[in-house]
Specification:
By secondary structure, this protein is an alpha/beta fold. The protein is about 40% helix and about 15% strand. It has a seven-stranded mixed beta sheet with strand order 1-2-3-5-7-8-10, with helices on one face. It has a two-stranded parallel ribbon with strand order 4-6. Strands 9-11 form a two-stranded parallel ribbon. Helix 4 runs antiparallel to helix 5. The longest helix is centred in the last third of the chain and has 47 residues, at about 195-240. The radius of gyration is 38 Å and the shape is elongated. The termini are far apart. Residues about 1-5, about 20-30 and about 200-205 have low confidence and may be disordered.
């Protein structure tokens, strides 16, 4: 075969080899992701979707250049410390419709500078420390969770920047005061300072405890004095029953002891 005809065949062979390598690389990359997760690009932003992937924890193999992360509609029960520390470019994080009941302090560490949207709606959050959202500037959606309305929730709501329109969805599922149950927390908070109520309750409990100890001390002192008086009376009666000379000696000794 002439050389002029062999060149195109070689080019075709190289092209097919290159395509095979690219395909193999793509398959290996896809295999590294959790089942049901895949990367994409949306509106110029690198997106990683794991919606409805039956996840029970935050995946570890998320590309660190991800801008939008969707972990919604899974079975994640809690967020550990540094769960997203390798995602410095993350802008949006959707954790809605999971089973999240606990968030460790530092779970969102490393996201404070860039994250602007955090969705935690429709989970199982009843109480979360405000420290879990420390320095976070993102708009946060906390609606549709079984919140316990107390001082802790009040501090949390005052710490985070709630997403527009989400505040009405923060409803009291439980509360120390039964009349608050079923009401929007911000509505209840307008009339009740939960932290002040808690402080008053604590102060009253301390006063009751102190009064109880004081009463116990007084009761013991009264009992001690009465017991000594009773012992002294019995001793004097005993002295009266003795002969006169011995009685005078014993009375002198008793008076000296009492004084």
């Amino acid at each position: 075969m002439p050389a002029a005809q062999r060149v195109p065949l070689r080019s075709v062979t190289m092209w097919l080899l290159l395509q095979s390598l690219l395909l193999a690389s793509s398959l290996l990359s896809a295999a590294a992701f959790p089942k049901g997760c895949y990367p994409s690009e949306e509106e110029g932003l690198k997106t990683f979707r794991c919606s409805n992937a039956r996840l029970t924890e935050v995946p570890r193999d998320i590309p660190n250049d991800t801008n939008k992360l969707y972990l919604d509609s899974n079975r994640i029960p809690f967020l550990p410390r540094d769960a997203f520390r390798d995602l410095p470019l993350l802008l949006e994080l959707d954790l809605s419709h999971n089973a999240i009941a606990s968030i460790e302090s530092g779970a969102f560490q490393g996201l404070a500078e860039h994250l602007h949207s955090l969705d935690l709606s429709a989970n199982r959050l009843a109480s979360v420390s405000k420290e879990a959202f420390s320095n976070l500037k993102a708009k946060v959606n906390l609606s549709d969770n079984p919140w316990r309305c107390d001082c802790r929730l009040q501090e949390l709501v005052r710490t985070v920047d709630l997403a527009a329109g989400s505040s009405a969805g923060i409803v009291c599922d439980s509360s120390a005061q039964e009349e608050h149950v079923g009401k929007a927390f911000l509505q209840v908070m307008a009339d009740t300072d939960f932290c002040n109520v808690y402080k008053k309750t604590t102060d009253i409990a301390m006063l009751v405890t102190m009064f109880g100890w004081f009463a116990m001390v007084i009761s013991y002192l009264v009992y001690y004095v009465r017991q000594n008086q009773e012992d002294a009376r019995r001793h004097l009666e005993y002295l009266k029953s003795l002969p006169s000379k011995q009685r005078r000696s014993e009375e002198s000794s008793t008076i000296s002891t009492v004084v």
